[in-house]
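Task 17 of the worksheet. Students: predict the tertiary structure of the chain below and write it out as structure tokens. Keep your answer in the requested format; marks are given for formatting as well as content.
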Amino acid sequence: MTNISAERIAQIEARFDELQAKMASGELDGDAFVAVSKEYAEVEPVAKAAAELRALRDELTGLEEMLAGDDAEMKAMAAEEVDGVQKALGDAEHALALQLLPKDSADARPAMLEIRAGTGGDEAALFAGDLARMYTRFAEENGWSVEMVSANASDVGGFKEVVMSVRGTNVFGRLKWESGVHRVQRVPETESGGRIHTSAATVAVLPEPDEVDVQINQEDLRIDTYRASGAGGQHVNKTDSAIRITHLPTGLVVQCQDGKSQHKNKAQAMKVLAARLYEQEREAAASEQADARKSMVGSGDRSERIRTYNFPQGRVTDHRIGLTLHRLAEILEGPGLGELVDALTAEDQAAKLANMDG
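Model answer:
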């Protein structure tokens, strides 16, 4: 466990006191107040954890002095309390170490969630639909909002591709572990012989950038309109409302045909394009500091097989951390996904703490 020095704790508390004084001074103008408020919100939980650790260390020092003294009654009282304080001290040290881990600035952002059917044909599209429902219900469980950005429905149900925008508190920080290949093993309803089929869907979770994060020049775009296809009644055959945007410098292509309005489809497609460009920038920066970002959980590479959903055995296995839960139905309903996300987060934190100690 990282041994956090008294000097480091004093630095944290001093900076917190400094920020508190600035906030209370009434001398900050708009931009300065916003900047100080943001840092205050980041430092406050760290300062509270530091103060808790310092108080427990002081308490343990006092108990050790009592144990070393001559007063038998005081020694007996200290002996009763010392084990509890030592345990609380270990917990507090761990809590502060977690607060001091490098933060991913994107964790607090909303996320663009893209799900695509992979190998397996109709069964893969149905599974992509299952995943879309799972994430929608998980979002509802967390009090987040979900907006459908684009959907290409399959004839048999489910989706060939679906893109959703998820907004709320710490959305990307919770969903980022979901990027990768999800595999399903089950007997399709159309399978008369009862054979288990294996299908797959790919999930990509991208943090949504602020407008200032990604500058897109209109000259770099080729925008094509075409008639939407698929379910939607007669309307789709009459209007060139679907949009395809090609970002010429990178070759990225985004399509949106979900809305009846060409203007709305363009706006949604631009949101997806901005998220993909922002993720490209993040990946480029990450590759420059790959060692610092390595963890046992994985890279978030979309080609990496991360999880298997086995229906005959009712189990879900996350291959990155070797965790198997025999609660498939609850996980696909949404609420059970939280246990997997928590386990992945804890594993990532453990790896980063070990890296700090090393």
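Marker's comment: Residues 231-237, 289-296 have pLDDT under 50 and may be disordered. The longest strand covers residues 197-207.
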